[in-house]
Amino acid sequence: MSSVMEEYRRKLISAEDAAAMIQSNQIVDYYAFNASSRYVDAALAKRVGDLENVVIRSELRLAPPMEVFMADPEGRTFRLHSLFRGPIENLVPPEHSTSIPARLGSYEALFWAGELRSDFAAFMVSPPDKDGYLHFWPSPALALADVRASGVFFAEINETYRHFRYPTEECRVHISEVNYIIEGDNPPIFPVPSPPISETDQHIAEHILGELCDGACLQIGYGSVPNAVANLIVHSDLKDLGVQTELIPEGIMELYKAGKITGRRKGVDKGKMTASFVIGGSDLLSFVNDCADLMMCSSSYTNNPHIIGQNENFVAINGCLQIDLTGQVNSESLHGLTYTGTGGQLDFVLGAAISKNGKSILCTPSTYTTKEGEVKSRIVSALAPGTIVTTPRSCVHYIVTEHGIVNLRGRSEQERAHLLIGIAHPDFRGDLLRQAKERKLIW
Hints:
Elements: H1 2-11, E1 12-13, H2 15-21, E2 27-33, H3 39-45, E3 54-61, H4 67-70, E4 78-82, E5 97-99, H5 107-112, E6 118-125, E7 133-135, H6 143-148, E8 150-157, E9 172-174, E10 180-183, H7 199-209, E11 217-220, H8 224-234, E12 242-243, E13 247-248, H9 250-257, E14 273-275, E15 277-278, H10 282-290, E16 294-296, H11 299-302, H12 305-308, E17 314-319, E18 322-324, E19 329-330, E20 333-334, E21 337-338, H13 345-354, E22 359-363, E23 367-369, E24 375-377, E25 379-380, E26 398-401, E27 404-407, H14 413-423, H15 426-438
Parallel strand pairs: 1-10, 2-3, 2-6, 3-4, 4-5, 6-8, 8-10, 11-12, 11-17, 13-15, 14-16, 17-22, 18-25, 22-26
Antiparallel strand pairs: 7-9, 18-19, 20-21, 23-24, 26-27
Helix pairs in contact: 2-3, 7-8, 8-9, 14-15
């Protein structure tokens, strides 16, 4: 350990010294989630006007807003590139930001190919363990690939970050691979509470529950519908479930504690839950660290359709924003602008298609209300120009709203239109039928 600490002290620099290394026209990767850069971000914000065209890359940052963009509202120095936008990324005006379309499972390959190169990477890690490893706690996801694809890695030490008790190779990086180390004020992990479950969410979850069987391997994400599904499973007779997912939400923790998850019937990583990142509160973070049956991996592993497909009865449950009457699904754009990102949805849709008896389920409330108070249908005759298609109609399987669940696989355009109109909100079914006839989808 003494040699580790000697190397640690030798590589220790200030955040200001790190920011001084960054030059115009370079790319700085802040990584994602709670690990997103804080120390370099604050120091780099002081260089507004000294530099130009510095690209900041950030994905689903859970920390406070990025200081570089707060200090540069006119976009004189910094621009944002994002693989997946969250509320923090969406604070940056569209004229100062852009999105990178890609599946989460493909990010690592893009890093290795040099297509997502960065001059610098800066994000939070744990202090070194006794063997000299700094841990990407609690969300390894893309971190190791991010480090190795960067020209220089600034490790921002956060003493509140733990060491994984059961780390895989992707959960940590050795201090010998770190270029510089920066210490700071050790901000606590930003907790993300589970959203409340509405009556609509409950109805959607009830439809989904009917598609699950003993031994099913699940992928569920963050949100009120996944939590509602988990609550129903806890009180059901379902047993011996498995998990292969990108995100571990609180619902998975509750299923495990209730004895519903054993992983005995998984085709790969039998007995283990596999995941790559965590969003939740303190109880979930403790669970992730203490659960010997949870294997935290890179997203290139958890989101690999060929690995997913080795699990029979794989069920992928994901949300979406809009569906047209032929089955095209938009899960990432609003008014023609990217609102979130492709994420892992298509990875798991494809994996479920490979799985024997697998199912992909995309769910949405049947309506939404605009800022002006107007209620609109999420099932539409046709997607508006500029709308992004996240899951193509050729890959769609089940669609569910609070009004029912339909299987679109193998169905004609005419059959799909009838089925989707049947699960739209009753107030919009007449208009949808008329529009479908005008488009010659139904005759």
